[in-house]
Amino acid sequence: MKRVVTLYFLLSGLTLFAQNANDPFARMRQQFDDFKQAKQEEFEAFTAKQNEEFSAFMQEAWQLFENFQTQKLQLDKPKMADAPVAPGTEKPTENIVGAQITPPATQSTNSKGVYVLRTTVTPQGSIQTYTPSTTGKNNGVVQQEGISFSFYGRTLFMPCSPNLRIRANGVSERHAADYFRAMAQMPRETRQLWHAVQQQAYDFGLNEWGHFCLLRSVAETLLTSSDECTLFLFYMLRNEGGYKVKIARGQDSGRLTLLLALDNEKEVYSYTFFRFPENERQVKYYAVYGGGKAKESIYTYAFIEQEAPLKQMRLDFDRTLNIGDCDQQRTLHVQKTGTTIHLPYNSSHMAYLNDVPMTVFPIYFSSEVPGESQEALQRHFEPYARRYSQEQMVGLLLNFVQTAFAYRTDRQQFGYEKYFYPEEVIGYPYSDCEDRSALFSWLVTSLTGLQVIGLQYEGHVATAVAFTDPNAGKGDYFSYGGRRYYVCDPTYINASIGMTMPQFKGKTPKVIRLKTIAHTL
Length: 521
Description:
The chain is an alpha+beta fold and 521 residues long. It has helices at 2-22, 24-59, 173-184, 187-204, 209-222, 226-240, 347-355, 361-365, 371-387, 390-404, 410-413, 422-427, 433-448, and strands spanning 63-65, 115-122, 125-132, 141-142, 146-151, 154-159, 245-250, 256-260, 273-278, 281-290, 298-300, 328-334, 339-345, 406-407, 430-431, 451-457, 460-466, 477-480, 483-488, 510-512.
């Protein structure tokens, strides 16, 4: 009986082989699989060769770079201490119910060399200070199948091989090259981790800075020293993320520093940077991790052609931030309608946004509030949008921002300049001119679909709105792009559309051009 069964399976196999041999589609599939396998092997061989060439390049003596720089703020004149009130009107009672009273801590890090640049604008000029981030090591847990860690208050699990827990033997050129080679020997493990980071960043609606933050948490869970974390981040961001990033060593401290090329088309104010020549241009790389001193010269390698295709890290938000459900709520009064609105916000968002490098105004003006806040705003304002004219609706939103949020300058609230995303205006007890302008801009574009521009004066930011209704708009306006934009100042309390603060009347501001936001009503 056993011989019969064996003969049956043998004949079945021969029959199946004969069928496949005569099946043109099966042959095509096999040829395609063979082609894919050959291309994969070819790619892996090319990558291995590139990695070895770069490792050898890293091992050569690094050059000394001394000229670190900082970026001057867009608003480098002191802001008004109090928000003015339109003539003949009264200032509303301050209401900070549900607001977060203290600024959230940035994501914890075990690198005592991480310094964030803070700028205070005074009548005598701008003062820059360097604040070390020394909030302690990430208390994550390493498991066989992955790691769990806290990410801005949310516990995450991420697949991560324990094989990536590589120890560094030092900080010299040779030690850095050896670490790079060791990481390059585990392409499957690093690729799996990068895919998990990408997916988590997408699910949370993070900008590209979130890739760095997620990897930073992974590194600080896996590894024990900031030098090892810096080497780990360097490899992952460069080889898996495809970002322009450099490894450097402090001249005085001897500590490793991660230099990351943040979007050079926009100014970044939170970190010192170095300029490096790449072909026919100069690229700014910011010191975002590691290091030993706030202001020190560094040793690093020069440009290698391998780095030409690498990309700079963008700070724009392309999706709505969504790090879990909102867990806080602020109660606000809508003066014009005599109603109250409850706006949810997310403490994890507040912590993450506080960690994103401070950059140019258009990014803040074009960013969204959480989905739950959007729904609350739509429910509240949609009945008015259905029966109000464009001018009435914009006037309602303008007065809401002017009167619902208490005014304080960043210097009064934090002791340094901090630009807000719209959600931060909801979460913090106070806001100033550029913050309120960012929220108003988002409200108008999202709830009415009208175009908004920012107006940047010396020491002040306002907005202007272009109406499509030919009967809408009166008062002060600016012509831009062939359209009339009527002044709307969210800081000028109770001011109507077309009213400019007296000290800025007749002055020509710099236009802050904004990208289009989807209309939700």
